[in-house]
Amino acid sequence: MWSTTFRELMRRYHGVEIGMHSYGPCLCPGGLPEGTCIGNYCSLAAGLAVFRRNHPTGRIAQHPFFFNSAVGLVADDTIDAVRDRPLIVGDDVWIGANVVVTPGCRSIGLGAVVGAGAVITKDVSPFAIVGGIPARRIGERFPIEIQHVLAESRWWEYPIDRLVPFLPLFLVDATIENAQRLRTHLGSPARPQ
Asked: Where are the beta strands (DSSP E) in the chain?
């Protein structure tokens, strides 16, 4: 959750961007595909599997011999490379245990919740709660008015020490009043990191 050095090493040597205070067992070398970008304050449970390309089912053969240059038969990959289809995970996202993200999903939006065991086949909207196989929208975390105020607050751009004075607002269910109070007290961030 805290190491800026670890985040820099993951970016430099593994091509994975990890936002501040995000955590989870998959945030390790080889745990996520190159090009993945994880926002700030994300919670990622064990068993998250992220796939960025599929076997070419319309071809005569689906075997990697015929599409993956790393296997040695073809000089260049004959389907999109993993790095060409990055997954972008927004800020304050919670992904439950044993979730599978397929290449059909390119982004999981701000504040979204993905239920345990879900198979994500398409993009997830901000503040959506999704679950199932394939994952479907179950609901919203907040009414649209609260979503807008929280999005405007951009609280996730602040380091934890700047948020501690507002801790009481984070310890109760979100209301329009406490979301507005947070937005007002934080002001408009000019990249406070």
From this structure: 17-18, 37-38, 43-44, 49-50, 88-89, 94-95, 100-101, 107-108, 113-114, 119-120, 128-131, 136-140
**3-class state of residue 55 by DSSP:** coil
Q: Verify whether residue 55 is a known catalytic residue.
A: yes
Phi and psi dihedrals of 138, rounded to 5?
Answer: -95, -35
Residue 192 CA to residue 158 CA, distance in Å, equals 6
Secondary structure class of 29 (helix, strand, coil):
coil
Sorting pLDDT into bands at 50, 70 and 90, what band is 157?
very high
Task: State residue 98's pLDDT score.
Answer: 98
Helix (H) or strand (E) holding 180: helix 176-186
Tens digit of each residue's pLDDT (9 = 90 or more) over 104-149: 999 999 999 999 999 999 999 999 999 999 999 999 999 999 999 9
Catalytic residue among 21, 55, 148, 185: 55
Which residue segments constitute the domains of the chain, with CATH numbers given? Answer: 4-52+87-141 (2.160.10.10), 54-84 (no CATH), 145-186 (no CATH)
Distant-in-sequence, close-in-space partners of 20: CB < 8 Å, separation ≥ 6:
4, 7, 40, 41, 159, 193
CA distances (Å), 8 to each of 4, 18, 43, in order? 6, 9, 19
Give buried/exposed letters for 46-65 (b at 16+ CB in 10 A, else e).
Answer: ebbebebbeeeeeeeeeebe
Q: pTM for this one?
A: 0.91
